[in-house]
Design a protein that fits this description.
Length: 420
């Protein structure tokens, strides 16, 4: 006989910890008694950027805030672009009462009418050239329909008349796997397996609604573990009262200064160092970079070949021969410690085997091993003696020769086997 005894507090801790993240969030919203407990248990998220204009991908679900336009007459012909937005989570930018985006420049009525007559004349000419003009005719007819709809809304606006539609703020939740076919034709709010929607009257900016959703989902949590996160110049809203532990962070160009204060307040990089930081030169000397296990850098940083970090990968779209030679010489001169590793991902077409030959010839008195052949372990390698206990390995990682590594290893070490 099954017991109906409710779960104890420790049991709830265990259940929530291993529960689907979306289910536990929805559960906490419906059960206030569990809310504090649920927020105290670390939440794991694969990828999230906290952008106020982006979708929220929370593991296996997609959260989207948009503006839904509902026409009062159900038999009304809805413009194709509006129908597409309605079927795909709503418009992503704020609009006024008549559906015009903020800053929309209204054309003079005479100009609109002239454009309309111009399209009408084009349609007449294309009809005479059928069937060869069928495709262009269809495009012209759609353009005229779109223009007529704009003229209609401008006319309502100029006469201060009510539009035949109402805008709503809409929250859509759909499984990640279903995102490509986000929704079927839908006018009323519904819950239908793959799609959940909730709507409110559109009385506040879309950005405010997105910030509210971010705080509702992620705010006040003790810890949020995020696998991948991107920092960009777009407006990002980090959840209030939460601590983010990020594994892989990508900081876009000129974004660090813009977001530095926010990052320092929410990303726990001191106690939980990043595994990789994809960065630009702005933050190279910041603790968020110096504590990261590995830096991913596009191009070469200022001051190259002087590099403070022990593990850096450069992505280059140019001939890397001179930079590699400079770096090898610098490492030999400064006697870098064992474990220091620099990699070049090179998408530039040049004679890659010759680079290893040139390094061998330049430092011939230090060469301990030279291999200029391809195999399934590495391709072209030269080993240079650095100190009595350490050697400098320079080698292409595999037969594809897409990564060059410069690595300090204990003397006598074999060439590392790469699996990329």
């Amino acid at each position: 006989m099954s017991s109906k005894k409710p779960l104890s507090y420790p049991n709830w801790q265990c259940v929530i910890k291993y529960m689907n993240s979306n289910t536990r969030i929805l559960l906490s919203q419906h059960c206030p008694e569990l809310r504090r407990l649920e927020k105290s248990i670390p939440l794991k998220v694969r990828s999230f950027d906290f952008c106020c204009q982006d979708l929220i991908f929370l593991n296996d679900s997609v959260y989207r805030v948009g503006i839904f336009r509902q026409y009062h007459d159900k038999n009304c012909e809805i413009p194709e672009d509006i129908q597409w937005y309605n079927n795909n989570g709503g418009m992503r930018g704020d609009v006024d009462k008549y559906g015009f985006p903020s800053g929309y420049l209204q054309m003079d009525d005479d100009d609109l009418q002239k454009e309309k007559k111009k399209i009408q004349k084009r349609i007449k000419k294309l009809k005479k050239k059928l069937p060869g003009s069928a495709r262009r005719l269809k495009c012209a007819v759609e353009t005229l329909k779109y223009l007529n709809e704009i003229i209609f809304r401008f006319d309502l606006q100029s006469r201060n008349l009510e539009p035949p539609f109402t805008h709503y703020l809409q929250l859509s939740i759909t499984p990640n796997s279903q995102f490509a076919k986000f929704a079927k034709d839908s006018i009323t709010s519904r819950k239908n397996g793959a799609l959940r929607t909730e709507r409110l009257f559109y009385k506040q900016p879309l950005q405010n609604a997105q910030k509210y959703l971010i705080d509702k989902l992620f705010g006040g949590r003790s810890q949020i573990f995020i696998c991948y996160m991107v920092i960009s110049l777009y407006d990002q809203h980090f959840p209030l009262g939460s601590l983010l532990r990020v594994q892989h962070l990508n900081i876009g160009s000129y974004s660090f200064v813009h977001s530095q204060a926010k990052l320092e307040s929410v990303v726990d990089y001191r106690n939980y160092p990043l595994k990789t930081l994809s960065s630009c030169w702005e933050e190279l000397n910041h603790p968020i970079a110096t504590t990261a296990q590995k830096l991913l850098f596009t191009g070469l940083p200022p001051g190259f070949p002087l590099i403070r970090h022990r593990n850096v990968q450069f992505t280059c779209y140019f001939d890397i021969t001179d930079p590699v030679q400079q770096l090898v010489q610098h490492m030999l001169n400064t006697k870098k410690n064992i474990g220091v590793c620099y990699a070049f991902r090179c998408d530039f077409d040049f004679e890659k085997t010759e680079l290893i030959d040139e390094i061998k010839e330049t430092h011939e008195e230090k060469v301990k091993l030279f291999e200029n052949s391809r195999n399934n372990k590495f391709s072209s390698c030269v080993v240079l003696q650095m100190t009595e206990t350490s050697d400098l390995f320079v080698y292409w990682t595999n037969e594809k020769m897409n990564y060059l590594k410069i690595e300090v290893l204990p003397s006598g070490s074999p060439v590392p086997i790469e699996h990329d």
